[in-house]
Amino acid sequence: MSNGEQNPEAVMHQVKAELANAYAQEFFTTVRDKCFAKCVTKPSGSMSSGESACLEKCVDRYVEATKMISHVVLQAYQRGGQ
Amino acid sequence: MSGHDAHLQQFLEEEKRKAVFNEVVAKLTETCFEKCVTYAPGSKFSSSESSCLTNCALRYLESGQVILGRLQNMGQ
């Protein structure tokens, strides 16, 4: 952020970009944590094809789980739950 | 407050709301993925994994309500 005379559009754009970046980084860290724990149970000299296949499926499932849960939470909020 | 400021304020509130929502979803997914996906993840979720994830998310939210209620009672 430079001086106070930035136009609002630029500020909004920057805020969105920074939030998206922070989200992506945190998401990556979490997925790596979870999937490493599930797929690389006994780290050896090199990663096996089974382990990398497991990691790939794990990422897909994690993304899917995130979508499912965001849908569920949205519905719960709309029902007035909170 | 100028029009620009009001507009920006509204934008920031909306982004904040979205960020809080994303945080709740991230927390729930982390907890429920751990609980519900017990084996190495497969090519698709089994029906029991899917329903576990959904139930887990809803019960987690509900637990918050119960706990909040209990804590509020204590404060009185």
UniProtKB/TrEMBL annotation, chain A:
* Lineage, opening ranks: Eukaryota, Viridiplantae, Chlorophyta, Mamiellophyceae, Mamiellales
Q: Where does this one sit in the cell?
A: Mitochondrion inner membrane
**Organism encoding this protein:** Ostreococcus tauri (Marine green alga)
**Main localization (coarse):** mitochondrion
Has UniProt tagged this entry with the keyword 4Fe-4S? no
From the UniProt annotation, give the residues forming the signal peptide: none
The entry's family comment says: Belongs to the small Tim family.
**What does the protein in this record do?**
Mitochondrial intermembrane chaperone that participates in the import and insertion of some multi-pass transmembrane proteins into the mitochondrial inner membrane. Also required for the transfer of beta-barrel precursors from the TOM complex to the sorting and assembly machinery (SAM complex) of the outer membrane. Acts as a chaperone-like protein that protects the hydrophobic precursors from aggregation and guide them through the mitochondrial intermembrane space.
Which Gene3D superfamilies does the UniProt entry name for this protein? Mitochondrial import inner membrane translocase subunit tim13 like domains (1.10.287.810)
What are the alphabetically sorted keywords of the record? Answer: Chaperone, Disulfide bond, Membrane, Mitochondrion, Mitochondrion inner membrane, Protein transport, Translocation, Transport
Membrane protein topology class: Peripheral membrane protein
Q: Which residues form the Tim10-like domain?
A: 14-71
Q: List the GO terms this entry assigns under cellular component, sorted alphabetically.
A: mitochondrial inner membrane
Tell me what this protein is called: Mitochondrial import inner membrane translocase subunit
Query: How the protein assembles, per its UniProt entry?
Result: Heterohexamer.
From TrEMBL, chain B:
Instruction: Cite the Tim10-like domain residue spans from the record.
Output: 10-73
Q: Name one GO biological process term.
A: protein transport
Stretches that traverse the bilayer: none
Residue ranges annotated as coiled coil are: none
UniProt keyword list: Chaperone, Disulfide bond, Membrane, Mitochondrion, Mitochondrion inner membrane, Protein transport, Translocation, Transport
Compartments annotated for it: namely: Mitochondrion inner membrane
Q: How does it sit in the membrane?
A: Peripheral membrane protein
Q: Does the keyword Protein transport apply?
A: yes
Q: Which GO terms describe its cellular component?
A: mitochondrial inner membrane
What note about domains is in the entry? The twin CX3C motif contains 4 conserved Cys residues that form 2 disulfide bonds in the mitochondrial intermembrane space.
Query: Briefly, what is this protein's role?
Result: Mitochondrial intermembrane chaperone that participates in the import and insertion of some multi-pass transmembrane proteins into the mitochondrial inner membrane. Also required for the transfer of beta-barrel precursors from the TOM complex to the sorting and assembly machinery (SAM complex) of the outer membrane. Acts as a chaperone-like protein that protects the hydrophobic precursors from aggregation and guide them through the mitochondrial intermembrane space.
- State whether it acts alone or in a complex, and with which partners, per the record: Heterohexamer.
Q: Which family does it belong to?
A: Belongs to the small Tim family.
Know the name of this protein?
Mitochondrial import inner membrane translocase subunit
* Taxonomic source organism: Ostreococcus tauri (Marine green alga)
The taxonomy runs:
Eukaryota, Viridiplantae, Chlorophyta, Mamiellophyceae, Mamiellales
